[in-house]
Amino acid sequence: MINFSQEEYTPPLNDDFWSEHVGLFDKPKYYADQDSPVGKTIGQPRQKGFREAQAGNAQAWYYHSDKTNVLWECFFDRRFHKHPFDKDVNMQKLWKGFEHWLIQKFPQATTLATPFNDPIAESIDKYQAFLKALGYSTLAEAAFGKSIS
């Protein structure tokens, strides 16, 4: 469970948090539309009176031959964001936290890539402004990306 305010969310940027709270199954999903889960929450909430609730989604694929992580989606559910992506500090920190986790999980990766548009964004221009604020630039006709240093 991750607690955050709608004004300021700082995702943990260390592997200790993820290894203590999120467990990934050994057998991965092979298809994006496959129903089986890839993992589960481990442990109990640390605060009495809190309950676990899904706050959003994040999905990515690692392509070994290209040494590329492709972030397919990473967002909070609508009830948790009130601002356009390019102005939403919580979304920026969530995205950076997920990037960090992917880089730690796949250290041989040299590139992060993502689609140029997301239908949940207010507009293509605002979504691309969001990606540019995170250091992405045009990688191909329908993709943005950045090198991992």
Strand content: 15-25%
Distance between the termini: 30 Å
CATH class of the domain at 53-147: Alpha Beta
Number of strands: 7
Structural commentary:
- This protein is an alpha+beta fold.
- The protein has a domain at 53-147: Aminopeptidase (3-Layer(aba) Sandwich).
- It contains three helices and seven strands; from the N terminus they run αββββαβαββ.
- 23% of the residues lie in helices and 25% in strands.
Topology (SSEs and partners):
Blueprint: H1 15-21, E1 22-24, E2 39-41, E3 56-63, E4 68-76, H2 89-105, E5 111-115, H3 124-133, E6 137-140, E7 143-147
Parallel strand pairs: 4-5
Antiparallel strand pairs: 1-2, 3-4, 5-7, 6-7
Summarize the structure.
This protein is α+β, with helices and mostly antiparallel strands. The chain has helices spanning 15-21, 89-105, 124-133; strands at residues 22-24, 39-41, 56-63, 68-76, 111-115, 137-140, 143-147. It has a domain at 53-147: 3-Layer(aba) Sandwich (Aminopeptidase).
